[in-house]
Amino acid sequence: MKSLDSSKDKYGLWTLAWPIFIEVFLQTLLGTVDTIMVSRISDDAVGVVGLAGQLFGALTTLFMTIAGGAGILIAQKLGSKRGEDARTIGIMGVTASTAIGAAISVLLAAQPAFFGRLLNLSDELLPLWNVYVSNIGGGLFLTAMIAALGTAVRNTGNTKAPMFTGIGMNALHIALNYLLIFGAFGFPEWGLFGVTVSGNISRLIAAAVLLYVFLYSFDRPIRLADFRVFDRKLFSEIFQIGWPLGVNMSGWVFSQLAIYAFLAMLGAQELAARTYMNTLESFCFMLGYAFALACQIRTAHLFGAARTKEAYSGAFRALYIGLAVVTGNALLLFAVGKQLLGFFTSDPAIVSMGVSLLALNLLLQPAKMLNMALGDALNAVGDTRFTMYIAIFSMSIIATGCSYWLGIHAGWGLIGIYCCMIADELVRGFLVLQRWRGRKYLLKAERTRQLETTEAALSV
């Protein structure tokens, strides 16, 4: 195992962040290209893809519970120079996540209509929904593999490999989309079904590439036989960190899913407008997200190495950089958002709805950055139950309950729902700020370190 000093640059904030940014940018580009190409089919198809994306996001939290907890522990164990433990944790994280993803895939492939009715999807959209969900959902185990493998590799400090894999996956997906949606160069014109074929092929190749990288990401190469390994104690550590993390993630995704269901109640135009705005907002926030995730990896590594003072100050540094970036991006989007919406749709009603949300986005993005940066820092040191508790409280009452009250009951529509989304992010952001400033887990780690040092000195 390399020494901590030799790996210092490897875990630098910018060193970690820029490949994550490129990766996230390409993922967002993938979603945007999908949206643009699908919009050439119909706005109804766009609404189906947007709603299905929320469903997939909700279900992926089931395997991200394991993958996320494993990723944090990998960085911590490597920071404390326990490479073999990190290797075992990575193997178990990938195996368990893939198994969960496979079970979800079977369910989605077999019963797509059940989920469509559960989400109040209209009968006229159901045929498109069944095509998209049964095929993309049937390949969700590939998403599980990519997520688990990418998280493990990223937390070893290697953020470049997932980035390059993302480049290849996106390039292939875009090319296949063009061929299979529109029937270019003699290929079959499959429309929305072509999107699903393209997505599954590109994900399969990406999963294979990341698996190869993962096998050589630790001091001792991983062999296929090693995937049978199971360490009860280490898996318990994964679960202790992971299950609150999973509840937190699922709470957010399910709140977004509920919001999309409310939008479906408002109508297809509102659903399409939110889908287009979600795409634009993703571009707005992606660099902030990269700094937040880099902060989590770096904080976990420093925490494992007992460098708590650096961990504390580093989180604020990531926050300040992220706030500057997302605020600037939100201002840019406010200035050119109307023109960008025109690339997606020519429906004036949908464009008008999107434009009305651009000013509110100036508040939403900084609030998201505050919540994510310091929330991820808390997760990195193992304080995942706190972020879970505040997520359950805020997202169930403010993000979901108030969205229905203002958006549907009071008749405020999209504006009311956005106001509630902003309030949710601000409440959680303020709470994680106060928790991080209290340094509970950092001080506990310092006391433990001092006690171990004292005991070691006395034993000599």
What does this structure look like?
InterPro entries: MATE_fam, MdtK-like, YsiQ. Pfam families: MatE (PF01554). GO terms for molecular function: antiporter activity; xenobiotic transmembrane transporter activity. This is MATE family efflux transporter. It is found in: Cell membrane. By secondary structure, the chain is mainly α. It has one domain (9-459). It is built from 16 helices and no strands. It has helices spanning 13-39, 43-79, 83-110, 112-118, 126-138, 140-155, 160-182, 192-215, 232-266, 268-304, 308-344, 348-356, 358-380, 384-409, 413-438, 440-459. Helix 9 (232-266) packs parallel to helix 14 (384-409). The chain is globular and about 75 Å long.
Q: How many helical elements?
A: 16
**What's the oligomerization state?**
single chain
Number of strands: 0
- The secondary-structure class comes to mainly alpha
Helices and strands, in order, run as HHHHHHHHHHHHHHHH
Radius of gyration: 22 Å
Please tell me the total number of domains.
1
User: What share of the residues lie within helices?
Assistant: over 70%
Shape: globular
The main β sheet shows up as:
none
pLDDT under 50 segments (min length 5)?
A: 1-7
Percent of residues in β-strands: under 5%
Gap between N and C termini: 27 Å
Mean pLDDT across every amino acid position = 88
GO cellular component, one term: plasma membrane
Organism: Cohnella faecalis
Transmembrane segments: 12-31, 51-74, 86-109, 129-149, 161-181, 201-218, 238-266, 318-337, 349-365, 386-406, 412-433
InterPro entries: MATE_fam, MdtK-like, YsiQ
Kindly summarize this structure in a few lines:
With 460 residues, the chain is mainly α. Helices cover 84% and strands 0% of the residues. Helix 11 packs antiparallel against helix 16.
